[in-house]
Design a protein that fits this description.
Elements lengths: L15 H33 L4 H28 L11 H16 L3 H10 L10 E2 L2 H14 L1 H5 L1 E5 L3 E7 L22 E7 L1 E5 L2 E2 L1 H5 L5 H23 L14 E3 L8 E5 L13 H8 L3 H4 L3 E4 L1 H7 L11 E2 L9 E2 L2 E5 L10 E7 L1 H4 E14 L7 E13 L5 E6 L3
Parallel strand pairs: 2-14, 7-8, 8-16, 9-12
Antiparallel strand pairs: 1-14, 3-4, 5-15, 6-15, 9-13, 10-11, 11-12, 13-16, 14-15
Length: 417
């Protein structure tokens, strides 16, 4: 029996929890319909060698509904995680900074910010341009970026005050051993130390405001600024964390050197090939996923996650184990993540779709494998001249990123070798 799956599009209401629960129930209903339809498709292929085209079309519609329902749930989670800035308890200095910043944004009045600069030597950095926003605004942007940027939500993040974060590490790991309290300690073997540098590059956005908006005292100007820049920043940095060149932007993990896992060496990411150009084998396609899981050392597997695009996830949803159970499973509870073979699945649209020799799936402990560096301070430069009668706000933050541990992330390549 064909089932029509409709995606609920209700926004956040006064009864947010009920809306959230209803959306989750709809997601589970959609997945049950997906399994039923796909089972019928597989049965027709087994008996007739080909599936009814109508079944294939129906499966695509349900798959699309699943994705849209999950996206709606994610948006509800994001909205619920945004506390009002005015609800935070601020110090006297913070209130002064907030008031001075509000006057600068609305009227271009720099006097009070300059007075604070003379007092603390930290509010303005003239050689870089603009003024630092209040700390509460900076911290709130960081919280929202975690909710909006999938790679940021699973990676390590370091706050730095300078332009570069440097860290020395041992490729072979630190020396260790057992010894009695009074025994002589053996001389440590020489460790192979390397140093990696993570440069915080400048990311900018330029929201535009009308004079009417700036003159409206009822408008929370800080909230307006956050809403204008958060999605733009999240989109740009999310792309860079995956495919960034490392030149004036973070170094994406997919742009690092790669090698087959059998010949893996430090400085490269190891990969497993599917054995089929542009996709997966017709028989036992999930075997390569199992190989990918166990290509990762046990110490990394316990915190590992899958990273793939929506189109790749749609392909993986069809996979079953030897007992006929689907390997992809929806979230076990509202607010949870979908899982694949009992590991959380993170949807990242910057990951490539299955294609010839594409690296469409990453699996690993990103908390240990990928490092994001945030330089403290979000800056805003008011420009009332370039787009009269509107006002531009040149807003900048500095962020860097790169592979931290090359042994913590593995890739799946849609290719023969």
């Amino acid at each position: 029996m064909e089932q029509d799956i409709e995606v609920k599009a209700s926004g956040v209401t006064a009864n947010h929890e009920r809306d959230f629960t209803n959306s989750f129930d709809a997601l589970m209903d959609a997945f049950e319909a997906y399994k039923e339809t796909n089972d019928r498709r597989l049965t027709e292929i087994e008996h007739c060698k080909n599936a009814d085209p109508l079944l294939n079309e129906q499966l695509k519609r349900i798959d699309h509904a699943l994705n849209e329902q999950q996206r709606h749930i994610d948006s509800l989670i994001t909205r619920a995680s945004r506390p009002a800035l005015s609800g935070e308890i601020a110090s006297q200095d913070s209130l002064q900074h907030k008031t001075a910043f509000d006057a600068y944004v609305r009227k271009g009045d720099e006097y009070h910010l300059r007075c604070l600069e003379e007092k603390s030597q930290a509010i303005s950095v003239s050689e870089e341009g603009g003024y630092l926003v209040p700390n509460e605004l900076d911290h709130e942007l960081s919280r929202r970026m975690i909710a909006l940027s999938p790679i940021r939500s699973i990676s390590s993040v370091r706050q730095v005050s300078g332009p570069t974060y440097q860290k020395a590490f041992s490729v072979s790991g630190p020396s260790a051993g057992w010894v009695a309290e009074t025994d002589a300690r053996a001389e440590s073997t020489k460790m192979n130390l390397q140093q990696r540098s993570f440069v915080a590059a400048e990311l900018y956005a330029m929201p535009v405001a009308s004079s009417i908006l700036l003159d409206d005292a009822a408008v929370d100007i800080e909230q307006w600024l956050l809403e204008e820049i958060e999605s733009v920043f999240a989109e740009k940095e999310g792309t860079a964390f995956v495919n960034g060149t490392g030149t004036h932007q973070p170094k994406g993990f997919l742009t690092c050197d790669k090698t087959t896992n059998d010949t893996w060496e430090w400085g490269k990411l190891g990969y497993i090939a599917t054995g089929v150009e542009g996709g997966f084998a017709d028989n036992s396609p999930s075997d390569k996923l199992v190989d990918l899981i166990y290509s990762l050392k046990a110490g990394y597997r316990q915190n590992a996650v899958w990273v793939m695009s929506r189109s790749t996830q749609a392909e993986i949803r069809k996979f079953k184990d030897n007992t006929g159970n689907y390997l992809w499973q929806p979230p076990a509870a509202p607010g949870g993540r979908a899982s694949l073979m009992n590991f959380p699945l993170i949807e990242v649209e910057d990951m490539p779709a299955p294609a010839e020799n594409s690296f469409s799936i990453a699996f690993g402990d990103f908390r240990r494998g990928y490092l994001i560096v945030d330089r403290q301070g979000l800056r805003v430069l008011r420009d009332p001249f370039s787009a009269k009668p509107h006002v531009l706000f040149y807003t900048t933050k500095r962020v860097g990123g790169g592979i931290h541990d090359f042994d913590a992330i593995k890739l799946l390549k849609c290719g023969v070798t």
